[in-house]
């Protein structure tokens, strides 16, 4: 376990969005922060997957201290989320395992995928309302882990390679996005069956998906550069092209006011989309190449990992 001090840098946002302030936290070099998850408590810790160094990271925003927790030999974690007990859960592609880190003792426990499933290229995970841990694997898999029994099952994705981002609606219905498959899919918790839902734009490269407070899904489309919305109740789709030339939309997160935040890689900016006005606002980091991957937040804050810059950045708003 390593603890290092982070460097805090406060920045002012652009005049077009003066109500947003930006603060940057330096991380140790070459940790490769990939995904981030903020504890819901105000001022609470922010966790990140340190993909390059094979560790779980914990940032204390009050002090800037960074703690790094080794996950095991060969570890290369991709996604990180928190359970209801505050434990960090990681999809560890290096170990081909789901990993849990106890929030108090820092004890590490791993559930390795069955050998018969092969290398899954584990990506992202989410809990449903019943406490089942659902996860994706880009090699063409999705799966479920029951933390109570330790039972882990891997399923073949209905259209093969591509399962990537995953999220659950407030009702607990789980959806994943398939980057290589260019679709989203709904998982039936009772049968574990995934049903493909095709977006109207072909080959759009659905990369990440997030639900708003009403159960409407927002999809980051990497190939098309679009932010898309899907309403499961009506089956209706809508799309908005991100600003800029040849945009690449990587991640999506919906805040408590149902504003939609996305990371855009061509211009290396963060975007906030207001569904009411259907307009984007743009925010830029101090780093020319940030490569923001998964986004997360809590009330009044959106957190981003700048994987290319070894920083975590928070956008605070009112």
Structural description of this entry:
0% of the residues lie in helices and 50% in strands. It has 318 residues and is mainly beta. The strands form seven sheets. Strands 1-7-6-5-4 form a five-stranded antiparallel beta sheet, with no helix packed on it. A five-stranded antiparallel beta sheet has the order 2-3-30-29-28, with no helix packed on it. Strand 14 and strand 15 (152-156) form a beta hairpin. It is globular and about 45 Å long. The two termini are 36 Å apart. 49% of the residues are buried. Residues 3-17 have low confidence and may be disordered.
Described by its quaternary structure, the protein is single chain
Instruction: List the helices and strands in order.
Output: EEEEEEEEEEEEEEEEEEEEEEEEEEEEEE
How many beta-strand runs? Answer: 30
Unreliable stretches, pLDDT < 50, 5 or more residues?
3-17
Keywords:
single chain; 0% helix; five-stranded antiparallel β-sheet; 30 strands; disordered N terminus; 318 residues; globular
Q: How would you briefly describe this protein structure?
A:
This protein is mainly beta. It contains no helices and 30 strands. Strand 18 (183-187) and strand 19 (194-197) form a beta hairpin.
Strand and helix layout:
Elements: E1 2-5, E2 8-12, E3 21-26, E4 33-38, E5 46-50, E6 55-59, E7 65-70, E8 77-82, E9 88-92, E10 97-101, E11 108-112, E12 122-127, E13 133-137, E14 141-145, E15 152-156, E16 163-168, E17 174-178, E18 183-187, E19 194-197, E20 206-211, E21 217-221, E22 226-231, E23 236-241, E24 249-254, E25 260-264, E26 269-274, E27 279-283, E28 296-298, E29 301-306, E30 311-316
């Amino acid at each position: 376990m390593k603890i290092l001090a982070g460097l805090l840098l406060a920045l002012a946002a652009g005049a077009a969005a003066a109500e947003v302030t930006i603060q940057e936290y330096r991380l140790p070099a070459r940790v490769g922060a990939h995904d981030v998850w903020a504890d819901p408590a105000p001022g609470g810790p922010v966790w990140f997957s340190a993909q390059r160094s094979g560790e779980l990271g914990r940032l204390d925003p009050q002090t800037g201290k960074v703690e790094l927790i080794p996950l095991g030999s060969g570890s290369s974690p991709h996604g990180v989320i928190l359970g209801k007990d505050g434990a960090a859960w990681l999809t560890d592609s290096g170990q081909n395992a789901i990993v849990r880190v106890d929030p108090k003792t820092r004890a590490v426990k791993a559930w390795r995928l069955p050998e018969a499933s092969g290398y899954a290229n584990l990506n992202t995970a989410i809990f449903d309302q019943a406490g089942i841990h659902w996860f994706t694997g880009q090699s063409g898999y999705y799966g479920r882990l029951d933390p109570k029994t330790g039972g882990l099952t891997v399923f073949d994705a209905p259209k093969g390679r591509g399962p990537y981002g995953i999220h659950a609606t407030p009702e607990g219905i789980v959806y994943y996005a398939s980057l290589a498959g260019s679709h989203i899919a709904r998982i039936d918790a009772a049968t574990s069956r995934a049903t493909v839902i095709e977006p109207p734009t072909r080959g759009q490269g659905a990369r990440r998906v997030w639900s708003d407070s009403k159960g409407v899904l927002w999809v980051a489309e990497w190939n098309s550069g679009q932010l898309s919305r899907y309403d499961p109740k009506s089956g209706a789709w809508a799309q908005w092209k991100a600003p800029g030339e040849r945009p690449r939309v990587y991640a999506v997160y919906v805040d408590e006011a149902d504003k939609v935040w996305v990371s855009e890689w061509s211009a290396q900016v963060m975007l906030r989309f207001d569904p009411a006005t259907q307009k984007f606002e743009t925010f830029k980091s101090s780093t020319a190449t940030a490569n923001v991957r998964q986004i997360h937040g809590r009330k009044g804050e959106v957190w981003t990992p700048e994987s290319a810059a070894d920083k975590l950045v928070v956008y605070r708003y009112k």
